[in-house]
Amino acid sequence: MDTDLVVRAQRGDKAAYARIATEIADRHLAVARRILRDLDLAEDATQQALLSVWQDLPQLRDPARFEAWSYRLLVRACYSESRKQRRWAPNLRLLPSDEAIAADDLSSVVDRDQLERGFRHLSIDHRAVVVLHHYLDLPLDRVAEILGIPVGTAHSRLHHAMRGLRAALDADARSPVQEVAR
Amino acid sequence: MSTDLDATRIVRSWLRTDEHESADRLLDNVLALLDATPQHRAPWPVRRFAHMNSYAKLAVAAVAVVAVALVGINLLPRSSSSVGGAGPAPSPSASPSATPTPLPSPSQSPASAGWPIGTLLDQRYPATTSSGVSISFQPPSKKWYTRQYSIETGQFPTASYAWIVFTDDIGEVATDPCHGKSMPVDGSSIDDLVAALATIPGMTAKKPVGADVGGHPAKVVELTVDPDPPCPMNQFWLYGQTSLYPNTVDSTLKLWITEVAGKRFVIHTDQAGDNPQVEHEIQQIVDSIQFE
After folding, report:
1. Does B172 share its domain with B275?
2. Which residue, of B84, B98, B110, B281, has the fewest CB within 10 Å?
3. Could you report the predicted ipTM of this complex, rounded to two decimals?
4. Which among A28, A123, A135 is the nearest to B235, CB-wise?
5. Given an 8 Å threshold on Cβ–Cβ distance, is A51 in contact with B12?
6. Strand extents, DSSP E, B206-251
7. How confident is the model at residue B41 (pLDDT cuts 50, 70, 90)?
8. Is residue B101 part of a domain?
9. pLDDT-derived band of residue B278, with 50, 70 and 90 as boundaries?
10. B214 to chain A, closest Cα gap in Å
């Protein structure tokens, strides 16, 4: 991110902020969607985070750290939005598939379903580490900086999360099923 | 079946599927809000963006349909002269849906959005739960706004923050909140639920007191979180996995439990700190409830 733009936006330059927001919005939405697993919530979180960026920019001490700082605001917004994913969300259940699934496709379909379920069992803390590391390809020291946690904690969270996801992948229930909305 | 490398490869591939998000729509909304959104230049850190009301101007319309679905509450402006001219009522056939609702542009008129854009006004609003219980209530100030399935005020997680969730009933209470374990409430009476709530581990319940909700006898249960909770609050499920949890460790939860047509009706409130004004406004909203 161009630090001059950040400095201008810190001083209240809306055009500069608009350029920043335009540059980061798609990426932030993608990250939020992967953490929250819900586009509607992800849009709310991203919008909240982008407004927070504008409002809190004057308090960012080091413009060179803008990217990490903005992701931190995004993860916080994801925390807030995640509180809405509760009992009243549409239920999902497993039904036998009416359609034959090609053997080659079966593994990937099942993997996705298992991953989705496994991922949803993770806390937002753990999801954030997985997404920042495996989706954004950020090294764990950067992930730790973004989340404001020790590097060791980031390693621990990633290990825990991947262990859970691997367990999901290794789950025995591998009948040809599809997950459908009730 | 999978090695660590396999799992990593599969996870990375899975995270990259459907990688075509466009934030254009919400970006337009954000940019349109800048003029009404001053920057924070205070020396203290800001935990959550302070102008929730401005945000809520978008959120109200955006989440209205989902809000109706998820908590079973259906808000409509009662007076057509309010909120800049009320929009049309949603179709009565509208069914619960998690389909993302387009975020309206703040420049949209309320009529085109079909929903009151802005915070809730200090006027009466009707609401219908998913089981068909019709109520109305009136916020005492313009500090309240709707969210996905609640009405809220203030900034999370400060002491100014609170929310209210209307729900038909609470059918389960936690036996192990941090692991999402719960048990069914034994019995269908008000007192049965009152007794069950007092058993939630990690929470302390005050002695229930009698109350009145819209002319119906009720009980009020006040719950607080015990010191040093064993897990973060967003994993502390009060009524079973993926139900509700206290918003903060300092939350005071008050539940008004009454019966309507022989069934329990619960108002779950959560105040994230000690703020007499917010507490008073919660009480005012509960006092304003009328069963239609």
Report:
1. yes
2. B84
3. 0.76
4. A123
5. no
6. 209-213, 216-225
7. low
8. yes
9. very high
10. 25
